[in-house]
């Protein structure tokens, strides 16, 4: 089977990450329960007339995909695979509000048409005139990992050579209010520097789009090799460390071979214990990296972790803002990523230098 490489990366988040020449050189400190994406100038990438008809999630996805293709030096790909937790949430809310406000009559279909989860993938395909495989995964916080696994299998079997993958989610006003009511969002405003040490329930919500071109052809500019991806719907907290060690064993690696572990801690006192099981035991002497305090929590926040891992392996540096501990690791060859959300949809991803 062929190897799989990450040939380009692109990110739009609550940090200024759309400029790929930087690696969190300037970190924005947030102090709120909900943080919005720092958006590029859309008219530089999308005609203004078209952009006006697009929801925020679509615009973020289209621009992030264009940036990824541009860096990979491609005008076309063999497949487009996207992941999303909630789809085009704002259009969904707009359509449902219209049903209520108009007493279920005289509804315009535009919001409904654009509210479907596969709208982003479809829009990207229309822009590229790509008639290849186009699929969208909606698997909660494993949505992006599902796209990565799908692409990896196709590339290993040489069914495709270049695949565009990505994860997109946007914030919606009504859904945000509901998450505050059920305490999935913190009751109090929290400084992003202190979020991961929080002792209260809930987290800070965010939004963003992260896209990658993965290929079975290595380039001189490739970021990393995707070694393995594994997902679990449920895991007990006591089994997390054992599962991580088994995952490494399956890939003929030990804990000592892992140069950094990238974790999805989000400051929720109820569920950060899953990460603490790893950091306090098997990976206590490994460089630990956290990122959700910078961009917020959303179903497709984990691909930002992949963006970080790719950057670390290529630049051989870790920005101070990401370090959860300080071990002064000299070089980075193997990086393990672990993510879960509210105790479900656990994923392990292994990258190595190429």
TrEMBL record:
Domain of life from the UniProt record: Bacteria
Keywords attached to this entry: Transferase
MF (Gene Ontology): 3-oxoacyl-[acyl-carrier-protein] synthase activity
InterPro entries: Beta-ketoacyl_synthase, Ketoacyl_synth_N, Thiolase-like
Domain Beta-ketoacyl synthase-like N-terminal: 46-218
Classification via SUPFAM superfamilies: Thiolase-like
Keyword Kinase recorded: no
Keyword Transferase: yes
One GO cellular component, as annotated: cytosol
Biological processes annotated in GO: fatty acid biosynthetic process
PANTHER family for this protein: 3-OXOACYL-[ACYL-CARRIER-PROTEIN] SYNTHASE, MITOCHONDRIAL, POLYKETIDE SYNTHASE-RELATED
Protein name as annotated: 3-oxoacyl-ACP synthase
Organism name: Bizionia arctica
